[in-house]
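Changelog note: in this version the structure field was regenerated for every chain. One regenerated record is shown below for reference.
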Amino acid sequence: MTDMPPKLAEIVDEFAGAPREVVLEMLLEFADAVPPLPADLAGHDGMEQVPECQTAFFLRAIVQPDDRVVTHFDCPPEAPTTRAFAGILAEGLAGATTAEVLAVPDDLYARMGLSQTISPLRVRGGTAILARLKRQIAEQAPASRTE
């Protein structure tokens, strides 16, 4: 898949080709891999809440001067599926440019085959996470700054 960062494309392919029972294990691994928030974001200062998620989910995207995107996510461990979305995005988008992140297809979770494994409500929440992340990045992208 050439329409997204290579690492994210690799993750999508792994999920899409995995049997259903393995997909659940993979989701749990990504849920455990969410990096901790830096101290300056403790208490969700400067983070956006994603109300479409059933659980409290916060995110922040920062476009660096070199056009690389840094993402921060916070979601309680008691919500492993939603937390897995954060882990997938954190790993898959690490080091990506604004253009690469903005090119991530909106139907990312369907491409991963997750609609056969998790509830539509959870997929909707994951889709909202991606949409809000992309919006934050678009607002900070160099083209937006000059307009």
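Spot check on this record: The radius of gyration is 15 Å. The chain has one domain: 6-146.
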